């Protein structure tokens, strides 16, 4: 670093200074007579991924000038000026491409100074030609590639998309099959490198190489990120291109490499440098009103001091009173607005010199969105029923749904795929919360935690044309004991059942004041036949609940007796009432009458209750089912339902005739509408 800028600090002082510039120092290691700093860089500072970039920061911090390496190679154009041909077919993804031919190269080991510096940076020395390209990359931040010119078919390079099925054996020895989304560099007949990432073995530099075609190009960062992930290789070159490389420095880096190749490999420059740069980017100019710097930072920084800071960092500064017009150098891709320049001033002035102070502006009291309050209420209800909340990843894979016995046309199978999945088990967005709860239960049971009472409130994702429809849902899973350590409680009482799960759902419905809901038998692929129900309100389905199907439980490696429910939370909350009106306590006593009704097995209790409520009118306060019986003397195919009817008037004490009339209306409606028999 000292060859670029004078550094008066000791190693320890420098290690303390670098973090104040935003360069986190992870460790400092000795290397022969030098010290190697391992820096943690901000993701948006691609210009710092080289020695000159860090030296520029240190020069600015020391108010000194940076000494850039010499880039004036000696030229010998004894060969044809048109020896290099380059065709860039995708200029938006490769906005600049330079190439130059260097002849009479003697490939061999690098001199000790070059190999030693590469080793200090963790780069293995290969040969003097390849080492020069790596050295310039580390020095100036511009990745480069050297081709054996005599192995290029047709003596030309073309930047294009690969033809599906084209193959390239890359420098790491792996043969890769390319697709039409991969941008490559090709000669007249074949692919010779994956643009900006890695070269191929067929044109690599070897001991027999005599002529080198040196490439220095600029590649689109997002394209490099996608391609590196897709082909499964990440290199020093791709790491720099992903963060952004100085488009204005490609020719300088090429000239620096040419000079070094002449010095260490005895080459001569045998062609003009070809520079395909069809759309030169004008420098960005930003206006900064200096009084605004003090308002944003909370401290006053002298304008003259700020000008010196910005100029030392490579910015051009023109002053007009308290207004500065700042020209942003091409290597600072991260500086896009005036606030970025003010941040540079703060950084080099010293964050530690900015005093801590509370803001003086008036602030408004924050409010939480109503939907978040509603979800909090749902969580509160479920936690009070004894459940534990879990959070699962909303990413999944279609294979997870195979164990749920879903038909091929089930809506859950229509999943939204990810464009760039990170792992093979996270390729799609989930369409159900149930699969995540099953995985949580399996993980607990494999660790011998047999009592699992959990729920999740989250989002599911469903394709809707070109858009993605998000739905809020709530799912519950119960298995094992509800009561732990109750020595005097029978196992059949303390173990979770369908009715415990139904009670949880009823508690949620009751506390959200949704209104009357109907539990009706249903056929659900992932639930046990005859032990599944659908929850609905006014004909609108809210969700399902029941015992997990034995095949589904076996596929999920779960024991029998797992009970699950999943509700559409958006639909549930649409009917919820969070601000109920106050109802005064009753002034008059209630009257209880028991009613025994014999109905066919096909008539549900919910249907009986609906008829009772309609016929009871305003006097009926509650109808509670307290017994179900089948067997003699009840006829076969029938069952007896016993209800406790609670009757009350809000304006008087009910007389015997009032109660008799109300009960008569109820029994008459049951006999007429359901052909029920009333037992005395």
Element layout with pairings:
Blueprint: H1 11-20, E1 24-31, E2 34-40, H2 51-61, E3 85-88, E4 96-103, H3 112-120, H4 128-140, E5 145-148, E6 156-161, E7 167-169, E8 175-177, E9 183-186, E10 191-194, E11 198-199, E12 212-218, H5 221-231, H6 236-243, H7 250-265, E13 268-269, E14 274-276, E15 284-289, H8 290-297, H9 303-312, E16 316-320, E17 323-328, H10 338-349, H11 370-384, E18 388-389, E19 395-396, H12 399-402, E20 416-417, E21 428-429, H13 434-446, E22 452-464, E23 467-479, H14 491-494, H15 498-511, E24 518-521, E25 527-537, E26 540-548, H16 550-555, E27 563-568, H17 569-575, E28 591-600, H18 605-616, E29 620-629, E30 638-647, H19 656-674, E31 677-679
Parallel strand pairs: 3-6, 18-22
Antiparallel strand pairs: 1-2, 4-12, 4-13, 4-14, 5-12, 6-9, 7-8, 9-10, 10-11, 15-17, 16-17, 19-21, 20-21, 22-23, 23-27, 24-25, 25-26, 26-27, 28-30, 28-31, 29-30
Question: Which tags fit this structure?
Answer:
Phenylalanyl-tRNA Synthetase, Chain B, domain 1, five-stranded mixed beta sheet, seven-stranded mixed beta sheet, elongated, Phenylalanyl-tRNA Synthetase, Chain B, domain 3, 31 strands, alpha+beta, 19 helices, 680 residues
